[in-house]
Amino acid sequence: MSAAAVERPHGDRPLIAEANRLMDRNPGYRVEIIGGLILVSPPPDVPHARALTKLMRPFIAAGIDGDETEVLQGIGLWLPSGTEDYAIPDLAIVDTDIEEHYVENNCYEPAPFRLVLEVTSSNWKADLQTKVTAYANAKVPVYVVVDRKHQRLHVLTDPGANEYGAHQVYAPGQSVALPDSIGAKVTLDVAEILRAGQPKGD
User: Fold this and answer.
1) Are strands 69-73 and 187-189 parallel, antiparallel or unpaired?
2) Cystine design at 152: which of 116, 132, 147, 192 (Cβ 3.0–4.6 Å)?
3) Quick one: DSSP state of residue 160?
4) Is the pLDDT of residue 190 over 60?
């Protein structure tokens, strides 16, 4: 997620040091470094959190949160795009040996990540542009975006250089069958997820 960007010179670990200072000064904010830029997002609102809870249920019901894979929120993914780059996806499906892939700064190598998912906020452009490139270059097999602004759900697969080879967009009324590579057969109800992500009364 991103709401502001700050560019800093490289040295030992100046970007990470600055990112950590920003987190200390702004509790609850999410701070990431993508392409040498520090991206800062305010805490998620209730509908954002509600959409994540709604999303976790079909994964857990399918048995993904078990012996081979886990469903986790807010864990750091170390990116190959820069010496200090990392992202913190809203939700991830990872292999259970993820802790063996620790890099630094509470971040892990891309290898155990089977799926990453973002629920958009005011920073929807970053989720639909900046992070597409970042996750594709990290070779994350599946990237899902719950686009609350445009009321769509995006599923990107087949990662390559700077982009995904396949990008499917789904509207309310449709169902999404996610790739079996995530560890089980999971189908998402687009309308249900988007409805959960909207403020009550909208």
Assistant:
1) unpaired
2) 147
3) -
4) yes
Residue range 93-143, pLDDT digits in tens: 999 999 999 999 999 999 999 999 999 988 788 899 999 999 999 999 999
Q: ∠140-11-76 over CA atoms, to 5°?
A: 25
93, burial (CB in 10 Å: exposed 0-12, middle 13-18, buried 19+): buried
Exposed, middle or buried: residue 153 (CB in 10 Å: 0-12, 13-18, 19+)? buried
- Specify the pLDDT at position 15: 93
The number of residues making up the chain comes to 202
pTM of the model: 0.91
The whole-chain average pLDDT of the chain stands at: 91
> Which run of H or of E encompasses 165?
strand 164-170
Q: Which amino acid is at 183?
A: G
Quick: pLDDT tens for 57-88: 999 999 999 899 999 999 999 999 889 999 99
Is-contact 15 33, C-beta < 8 A? yes
3-state secondary structure 80-145: CCCCCCEECCCEEEEECCHHHHECCCCEECCCCEEEEEEECCCCHHHHHHHHHHHHHHCCCCEEEE
Q: How far is CA 15 from CA 12, 41, 68, in A?
A: 9, 16, 34
